[in-house]
Amino acid sequence: MLTKLFGYNPKTMTLKKEIMGGITSFLTMAYILAVNPSVLAEAGMDAGAVFTASVVSAVAATLVMAIYAKMPFALAPGMGLNAFFAYTIVLTMGYSWQFALTAVFIEGVIFILLTLTGLREKIVECMPLLLRRSISPGIGLFIAFIGLKNAGIVSANSATLVTLGNMHDPAVLLAFFGILLTAVLLVRKVTGALLIGILVTTLVGIPLGVTNFSSVFSIPPTIEPIFCKFEWSSILSVDMLICVLTFLFIDMFDTIGTLIGVSSRAGMTDEKGDIPRLKNAFMADAIGTTLGALLGTSTVTTFVESASGVNVGGRSGLTAFTTAMCFALALFLAPFFLAIPAQATAPALVLVGVMMMQDIRDVNFQDYISAIPCFVCITFMPLTNSISDGILMGLIAWVLLHLLAGKYKKLNVGMVILAVLFVLKYAFL
């Protein structure tokens, strides 16, 4: 039954690793349940309703990934995409949140059509294999930076952009403790090291005043204030086109980057670097976005934090199913799950970053025509806080260097078309 439903292979997988992988993925991405309502509330939406919509959309989209795609990735409303929704479309451009929700819904419908035609898969196939290999290390640096920033180990600085956090802050010290503990567990090959690290660090945070448990159970708020609240009067405007295209670019290449990077790290790609059932995974993402808009939340996307569950050993849809069930529980146990501090999940993100660096060995840094674009892809992800920008800039650099160096025969038409589209994206969106 598990094989038929989730693609579980008892010869190469274990139930323990699949379930622990799902729980670990959930714990590293559970912060979205607190952050997304806060961000969208800035746009005037009901925070309680957004919480419920975020959970339900995460459960539904991750179940599609588990059963239809049979892959271990979890989905939820994405960071960055929710910021564009609230701070750009609503607070900067001056449109209503209903206008922004309409843009998300249109994006989701377009994604379903693009997936049915196989266009998203063709985009992946157009990308050079070596550039695809560099996505995993780039994501590793990106999620490690997220973990360090959320824990307070890295903090903002007006002169240098970032600097070392306050080493006298108990929260920062707790994060360092968690990283050291989890690292030791990994070195000693303890099963479930990442999950154990999260739970122990959470408990140690209680006497330090970092972890605060107030209650356990809560009744989920209604989504009535935001359910199917669309604004169709402006769908033919230029601003709507810009918003939809921006959502498309960010979501498409964030998802492509996450699927390629994490699948590569998990050994889930074939000898050509292709991912089995990629079209199904894209469909889960597209359905999640469309359903999320109907429920009343920003774009649902595949979470890069899924890498933490994959590194625990999750390989099938059973991992994603476990994550979906954790989200379903969170609907009624929100105070418990939201009490897990960022300092407890940071160690998992940092050490998964270490694990994802291994594909960097495929890049020959003495061959500059390929090394420079790969370096651009790897470094731009953490430095621009965007997986999609890293991929886009890396491919633009690949095409330009090959053209200017007279190596244009190594390019294909798809690469050139994508590079032109990416340049136009930065010029006009």
Describe this protein with a few key phrases.
429 residues; mainly alpha; two-stranded antiparallel sheet; globular
Walkthrough of the structure:
This protein is mainly alpha-helical. It contains 20 helices and four strands. The chain has helices spanning 2-6, 15-29, 32-41, 47-69, 81-90, 97-116, 119-126, 129-133, 135-151, 170-187, 193-208, 238-266, 278-295, 306-312, 317-330, 334-338, 342-355, 368-384, 387-404, 413-428, and strands at residues 75-77, 154-157, 161-164, 300-302. It has a two-stranded antiparallel ribbon with strand order 1-4. Helix 18 (368-384) packs antiparallel against helix 19. The radius of gyration is 21 Å and the shape is globular.
Low-pLDDT parts are none
Number of strands: 4
Shape descriptor reads: globular
Mean pLDDT: 92
At a glance:
It contains 20 helices and 4 strands.
Write the layout of secondary structure elements.
Blueprint: H1 2-6, H2 15-29, H3 32-41, H4 47-69, E1 75-77, H5 81-90, H6 97-116, H7 119-126, H8 129-133, H9 135-151, E2 154-157, E3 161-164, H10 170-187, H11 193-208, H12 238-266, H13 278-295, E4 300-302, H14 306-312, H15 317-330, H16 334-338, H17 342-355, H18 368-384, H19 387-404, H20 413-428
Helix pairs in contact: 2-14, 2-15, 3-4, 3-5, 4-13, 4-15, 5-6, 6-12, 6-13, 9-12, 9-17, 9-18, 10-11, 10-17, 11-17, 12-14, 12-19, 18-19, 19-20
